[in-house]
Request: fold
Amino acid sequence: MIMEINKPIATIFLLIIDLIIIFLFVIPKYQESDQMQINLAKRQGEYENLSDYQIKLSDILKDIENREDILKKIDAALPVSFSSSNATYFLQEKASENQLMIKLLAFSEPVPTIFKKEIKSVAMALNLSGSYQGFKNFLSSLEKSDKLFRIDSISFAALTLSPEKNYPQGQLDNYDFKLDVRAYIYP
Reply:
């Protein structure tokens, strides 16, 4: 005896089994695959962002290397520490280049400035003797130097010479100059 299979019931039964298989196995795997694609897209975005970031860092590094001479000038203008011996040597060198003689050079302790708390200034009192043109050239050389100097005040007076002595021609044009100069450091 052959059992006859009722086609509509078998079709419904197979359809139900197909739906159960789809709900139990296919849909979860599809959702897992979809979630994996979302995660992959996120990871690719993160990777591209990191690549862009590394490219930007590389460009910045190249820019810094290209501007190394400018950065060295900034370091020279705002040194990390103040050395009175270096400042004395620098000022003595500039004074002698301009035929001036340093009579007195006094330094104060570094103090914070009003510009920023990190930048400090060192005040220097400087007494010079020499010609006006030499003094003018000395000020110009301070202005052109890599170091950051600010002149707070300038005063000068003619040398007092005794009338009975016979002075050489150039010595009559000498003056005493007093400068209050400020140098800056970035500790």
